[in-house]
Amino acid sequence: IAGITQAPTSQILAAGRRMTLRCTQDMRHNAMYWYRQDLGLGLRLIHYSNTAGTTGKGEVPDGYSVSRANTDDFPLTLASAVPSQTSVYFCASSLDRGSDTQYFGPGTRLTVL
Amino acid sequence: SQKIEQNSEALNIQEGKTATLTCNYTNYSPAYLQWYRQDPGRGPVFLLLIRENEKEKRKERLKVTFDTTLKQSLFHITASQPADSATYLCALDIWGSQGNLIFGKGTKLSVKP
Question: pLDDT tier at B16 (50, 70, 90 boundaries)?
Fold first, then answer.
């Protein structure tokens, strides 16, 4: 693989269910990010990670959790999905925090019913 | 409150003309500003970065200006082509934000043949 991959591509989920969105990068980037993109609201940062073992909260962290056990993987978990979490989720990475460029994955389209 | 505005949701131009997209911000002190391109169903792709002490940056048919007094960036595509049709996002890095990017909502550019 090259770059960032996300899985699944899309998912329909019943409210109240637990869901983990997967993100893997092979660029050995230290920093990783999760965004959600909603029509009319743009991209908003959910959580970020400066390096393996550390995470931080972004603009809209409520209802989401992340972990960063290693450099490559940065899963996003919805413990109990709600309809307002229906969105397109993008994972991104950069060489370091504050680096010039963020590289984005292809996105996961999540629908919570 | 802090705000980023991109001049319009949509911009339609004729092939061969120059497209000019605007990004305005208030109550920010950005270290740099970035422009990304996003095609439907895909993640954003980095195009250009301009730092606070730079006035202009060019890359092939793309040009970005940054006026920290006006709190505005202009993004130009010269000799536009239908293949340039996409949504363009501006993003600001904020001093002291540890590298977080704040994204505008985007401008959808359509270049007609």
Answer: very high
